[in-house]
Structure formats: structure tokens, C-alpha cells
Amino acid sequence: MLLKYYIKQQCSAFALLVTAFVILPSVVAAFNIYFYNTKNKLKSADAAIVLGAEVWQDEPSPVFRERINHAINLYNRGKVSSIIFTGGIGEDKDIAEATVGKRYAIARGVKESDILIETKSHTTLQNLKNAKKVASRQDLSKFIIVSDPLHLKRATLMARDLGMNAYPSATPTTRYQSMESKLKFLVRETSAYFFYLMSKISLF
Q1: Is 103 in contact with 65 (CB distance < 8 Å)?
Q2: Residue 182, in any domain of the structure
Q3: Phi-psi region of 141 (alpha: psi -120 to 50; beta: other; left: phi over 0)
Q4: Does an H or E element contain 185, and which?
Q5: CB neighbour class for 21 (10 Å; exposed up to 12, middle 13-18, buried from 19)
Q6: Residue 53: phi, psi to the nearest 5?
Q7: How far is Cα 90 from Cα 96, in angstroms, rounded to an integer?
Q8: What's the rounded Cα separation, in Å, for the pair 153 and 169?
Q9: CATH of residue 135
């Protein structure tokens, strides 16, 4: 009986430790990711950086299209004077995401001279690193990061870690509208956020 009681107590203690060090931080992080964009006021900047997303043949996917539309809206409202499209050629694709974004924007009235692209990246961090390089050649130093709401906490943290003067702006017409799609995105982003934080710690 004493052994069973001891084992039960140890299991309870372990469960509390898991809750304290794993589950609770994950819940807090997910909460902060979900509400992150509501805490930031939109500012004017030199350029909007549109984070890449999938393309369908030579057209932006619905997710990418709404990011582009939001950047065009910022441009038309005078919030930015340039747009930087990011994203390389995805698996089984024939054209870079950034190139598709550029074509789409030009067709909707954005001046080609106001568009910059980088076509080598395949991750959010690469998007931002390459965008920074492209922007530096044009003396652009203040940025609005454009993506879906749940993507922005991690993306903006990455940008600022790169020394960029960056602010988030979520597309208001995000395709992630259903509770199921939001939950899947949130779980994926929370995991990616922790992975990025751990990668930063490992550098020290």
C-alpha cells in the first residue's frame, strides 16, 4: 500500500511539473500569438515586406493573394512607398512566389519601380534576411511586416532580432477564418515560435 501511495504521489508531482514547464507556457504563448496583432498600432514605413506563401501555377494561392492585397492597400493609402515581395520557388513549382506577387501587384496598379523582390528564400527567417539585404540597397530602413495574424508574433520577433525596425500588420481578409483552420495554424505557429526561441538560446 505504501509503495502504491508513493508511486501515485510521484506521478502527481510529475504531472504538475509537466503542467508548469510545458503545458502552461504553451498556453500562454498561444494566447499571446493569437492576440498579438491587436496590441500593435499601424505605422507608416518605407516598405511593406510581404511574407511568401504558396502559388498555384502562376497565380497566388488564396492565402498569398490576401497578403498581397493588404500590402497593395497599404501602398495605396500612403502607409508605405515600396513593397518587397519574398519567397523562392517551392517544391514542384516553376515560378518564385515573389515573382508571382510582383506580377499580381503590377496588374493592380502598383508601379514596378516601387516593387522589390527576393526569390531565394523558403522560410520566414530567410524571407526577412533576404528582404533586409534587398532593402539596404535602396536605403529602406523601416518596415511593415505583412502576413496572416497568427504568423506575425514570430515573424516580427525574427525581424527585430535581425536589427530591423519592423512593425506587424495582419491582413484583415486572412483565409484562416474557421475555428478549425485557426486552431491548426495556432498549434503550428506556437510550436514554431518555441523552436525559434530554443534556437536562439542554443547560440549562447
Answers
A1: no
A2: yes
A3: alpha
A4: helix 179-201
A5: exposed
A6: -150, 175
A7: 7
A8: 10
A9: 3.40.50.620
Over the stretch 119-163, which tens digit does the pLDDT of each residue have? 999 999 999 999 999 999 999 999 999 999 999 999 999 999 999
Task: Report d(CA 13, CA 74) in Å as an integer.
Answer: 52
In total, how many domains does the chain have? Answer: 1
Please report, in angstroms and rounded to a whole number, the separation of the first and last CA atoms in the chain. 48
* Coil/strand/helix, residue 32: helix
- CB neighbours of 143 closer than 8 A, spacing ≥ 6? 45, 46, 47, 48, 49, 84, 131, 135, 159, 164, 165, 166, 167
pTM: 0.83
**Cβ pair 150, 189 in contact under 8 A:** yes
21 within domain boundaries: no
Amino acid at 119: T
- Report the relative pairing of strands 47-50 and 142-147 from DSSP bridges: parallel
Kind of pairing between the strands at 142-147 and 165-170: parallel
Q: Is 143 part of any domain?
A: yes
Q: What's the grid cell of residue 196?
A: 525559434
Domain that includes residue 56, residue range: 36-201
Closest by CA to 85, choosing from 123, 127, 33, 22, is: 127
Summarised one tens digit per residue, pLDDT across range 90-120 is: 888 899 999 999 999 999 999 999 999 999 9
Question: What value, to the nearest 5°, has the Cα angle with vertex 73 and ends 141 and 163?
Answer: 20
